[in-house]
Amino acid sequence: MNTTHRTRRTRRRTAKAVLAGALALLLAATGCSSKADDGDKGGEAADGVRTGPGVGADTIRLGALTDLTGPYATLGKSIVQAQQMWAEETNAKGGICDRTVEIVVKDHGYDVQKAVTAYADIAPDVVALPQVIGSPVVAALLDDIERDKVLTFPQAWAASLLGRDAVQVLGTTYDVDMIAAVEFLTRTKGLKKGDTIGHVHFEGDYGANALEGSTWAARKAGLKVTGQKIKATDTDLSAQVSALRKEGVKAVLISAGPAQTASLVGVAASRGLKVPVVSSAPGFAPQLMKTPAAPALAAMLSIVSAAPAVSSDLPGVKDMVASYRKKYPDSPVDSGVLSGYNAAQLMGADLKKACEAGGLTREDVVKAHRAQTNADTGLGTPQNFSDVDRPASVETYVLKPDAEAVGGVVNAEDAHAAPGVEEYLSAR
Amino acid sequence: MSDRLPAALTRRRASLPLLAVALCLPPFYLDAFWLRIGLFSMAAAIGAVGLALLSGTAGQLSLGHAFFLAVGAYGYAWLAGEPGPGLPPALAALLAVLLAGAAGGLFSPVAARVKGVYLGIATLALVFLGHHVLLTADSVTGGFNGRSVPPLTLGGFAFARSDPEPTVLGVPFGAEERLWYLGLALFAFTWFTARGLLRSRPGRALAALRDSETAASVMGVDVARHRSAAFVVSSMYAGLAGVLLALAFRRVVPDYFSLALSVDYLAMIVIGGLGSVAGATAGAVFVTALPLLMTRYADQLPLVTAPGSAEGAVGPTEAARYLYGAAIVLVLLYAPDGLHGLARRARDRVRRRRSRAPAPDAVVPPPSQPTAARTKEHTP
Amino acid sequence: MTTLLDNILGGLALGAVYALVALGFVVIFKASGVLNFAHGSLLLLGGYLTAVLHDDLGFAGALALAVLVTAALAGALDRFLLQRGGQDAHSAHVQTIVTIGIDIVLLTDLSRRIGGDLLSLGDPWGDAVTELGPVTVADSRLAAIVVSAVVIGAVFALFRFTSWGLSLRAAAEDLEAAALMGVRLGRVRAGAWCLAGALAALAAVFLAAFPAPGLERTTGQIALNAFPAAILGGLASPAGALAGSLIIGLTEAFVVGYQSELHVLGEGFGDVAPYAVMLMVLLVRPTGLFGAKGAARV
């Protein structure tokens, strides 16, 4: 017992000593903590340009939060490669603002927690984010992005992302596309007052926003919309097709993923429900044209998209596709390549403009971006970024699947604004 | 034996303040990336301790933990925010925890009757139903995009970034730095209350229930009542973890509270070692921090290429997933009693070696305890 | 009327596929007390092997090989990884988590190989359909019903009439007694895992065939829908798995088919409905429809 007492007393004494020592160490050591002298990051570089996070004397660092291992792996890879290609091309031409451009890529695999941590990791060292994939990821980061004023181009097109200074949805939003889709159906497929349209859509932002557009346009045209909500894991749409057939639909809109589009069209064709189907842009991938549903897709499907087909003969698109195929001969050329490259070019234009105005801080970049009223990269329609509450463009292309073409699609109709869009936007 | 126990206790007592000081240090050195990992780990630890009480002690399996985390997180965001009642954040946090407990209570007709794996899958239903409600009840949950989480304020001190950023000893104190200490405080609270609970009368009753339902009820334990009570308490810890998670995320989104999250929590308590608070904590850190760190540093490994560089190569995220999966398998193969058991055996081995060395006032070497001695467990 | 028949047939076909998966869960649970979280990846593996081999071996050959390989892998996983943990109930918990680790490794590798592709399995039915009176059914779905019925019948016979089945049932009843009676637990268990693996590989074919567009990386997630099916019937009862699967299949088909009438429950309820049904059943019968009464009398 005696020993125990003594040990206990000495232990207590050592505990106190340890505590005091540790506190002293803490006080002394924070003096040399690297965080302590991290205070001023901004300033003015030697060439007189105001700099902030992510901009050094001879580099500009951009960030990409992408999905290379999750459900959007194919899209993510296309965008990453296209943007890396842009960075190399830009640097070969002397860079931007006499600085080389560098893109820091972080793969979050569609996991919100990983993405939020990755953001905390790269945010202090990048000036802007030309790529953020995954609607839940974008949603989780919205507040942080606004707070840090990092100009961000999300690869998501829901109207709920509008109205934020630092977040820019490129091109049209899903609802605008769907208004164009309904207009396309009434104009070319002979739908008339009183007909019913089915709209199969994902749960969540993407589907809800698309449904909003189709419902509005249908009401204007005197049509009725019957919605069918599905999940990303539903790949057999037999039951949905049965329900649509019961409703006697004359056309079907779909705002889901490629697998769902293939199943819907395949099942509808086999059940004799031979009606036109119009998909939102994310609902198609070139891989679909290698599935058994390919003939049915070619016969029934159209796609509404803010971007032209990669097989389009716009000179900018042709050049880009040619250099992409040279650089990545094994990778498919899909719409992700185009949208990624386009986003990078727009980002480059913003940076150049900010540099001309004398500053490359995050605030400067956002300001330069919002001053662009007619940004034209030659890869589609020009965009206007000055109004944060309005989609950057309201012009929609209509595409058709074509197994022979690059990227599996060809242009069916050139970009045009559907007649009701302005009214819709002012009513919203 | 009588000597060993106090000695071990005092050794622990001596290391406790040291540990506390060590845990207070990181905000002075590490940047937001590390602090966020720490915050997520602390929140996970709180939730895992709750689940450990339920599964390890009461022998009930729950895959519905993500649902109760969501109740806590969304409850706080709604109660303290706009639209919502806009209560003072501290009160909202307290009410959110109670709300999670109430949700657990509502489920008790099932929790009291259904056992083991059946309860596991039954609680799985909660995750799916909850996710459905989170997406559908837009006005409360904000739908798919979720909602912003108002920062917690305590007596005028906000756990969020403020302008200008105050500095402590020259280190700027932003949201993560402040939340770190909140997380520590909440974790300490969890640690001590849960340990107290395990040693209390109801805690022993639950352990008896796990070992044999029949024997326990013979001894006068009210089976159904104790089962549902364990479920409610476990939900409240989950609610607390949810509040901390919400504060760390600053925005809650429905997709985070998925089945995968529930499975993660189950993995935490088993990897940590069923039925111990320290084990659940270790498991929580393992499951939360390891994938994040591996993803961050996997590109340093040989054969791993930078993200998106080459065709068919193994990227850092994939490498991290391989390693993480393999780590789970290996830990459990070589230490079926989890990290807690592994640590205990390592400690015993060190102690045995030390006592073999000539030491004047060495304590009597402990009779080598059968460390893996487990009471006969319930059938799942 | 047509819609009703449509939904019934669709539900039965779906239920038949779920039954193959749910039966796998049940067989494994009965033999080892483990809830196999890696079942989805085993299913994906079976599908992937069929998809890459069918060009060289033809559909039947590819499927046969895929079934064999998946079965062998499942058995090997049990024999060399899980069984090291022991046979008692506590280790069943631990082994359940080990299957999560296995699932992560397998799924990561298969996802990496599949990428964003939609793989065709080369099945003989294509997008052909059959008219049955007023309703149209995909041939692949009819095949699913027939194959499931035959396979499930065979599994029942295996349970009932072979010595392996007897050993399995004895082991499930009382592990120690069975071991004392000379049942070689390790082999019986591994056999059950092989069987479950084979069933998973077979199910993959029908999950990727026509009404679905092909095999993709998320196909394995469908195994989750078989969870409520297996529990609903009673986890230790093969007959229960069958009944539970049909109930879940029909529920899903009906809720989706009549979605417009059911919109009070919120759109997209179809994916949640199986769990709601399961909860209700568990409230009344805590161990499922066919589960043994577990409550001890004092």
From TrEMBL, chain A:
Keyword annotations: Signal
Listed InterPro entries: Leu-bd, Peripla_BP_I
Domain of life: Bacteria
PANTHER family: BLR6548 PROTEIN
Keyword Nucleotide-binding included in the entry's annotation: no
UniProt name for this protein: ABC transporter substrate-binding protein
The family this protein is said to belong to: Belongs to the leucine-binding protein family.
First and last residue of the signal peptide: 1-36
PROSITE patterns: PROKAR_LIPOPROTEIN
Positions of the Leucine-binding protein domain: 59-400
Xref: SUPFAM superfamilies: Periplasmic binding protein-like I
TrEMBL record, chain B:
Location relative to the cell: Cell membrane
Keyword Transferase assigned: no
Coarse class of the protein's main subcellular location: membrane
Keyword field: Cell membrane, Membrane, Transmembrane, Transmembrane helix
InterPro entries on file: ABC_transp_permease, LivM-like
Record keyword Nucleotide-binding present: no
Topology relative to the membrane: Multi-pass membrane protein
Family matches, as CDD domains: TM_PBP1_LivM_like
Start and end residues of each stretch annotated as Disordered: 345-380
Stretches that traverse the bilayer: 34-54, 61-79, 91-110, 117-135, 179-198, 229-253, 265-293
Name by which UniProt lists this protein: Branched-chain amino acid ABC transporter permease
Organism: Streptomyces heliomycini
From TrEMBL, chain C:
Single GO biological process annotation from the record: amino acid transport
Topology class, membrane: Multi-pass membrane protein
GO CC annotation terms, alphabetical: plasma membrane
Transmembrane portions of the chain: 12-29, 34-51, 57-77, 142-161, 190-210, 222-248, 272-292
Record key words, sorted: Amino-acid transport, Cell membrane, Membrane, Transmembrane, Transmembrane helix, Transport
The keyword Membrane appears for this protein: yes
A single GO molecular function term of this UniProt record: transmembrane transporter activity
Transmembrane helix keyword on record: yes
Family note: Belongs to the binding-protein-dependent transport system permease family. LivHM subfamily.
Protein's name in the database: Branched-chain amino acid ABC transporter permease
Organism of derivation: Streptomyces caelestis
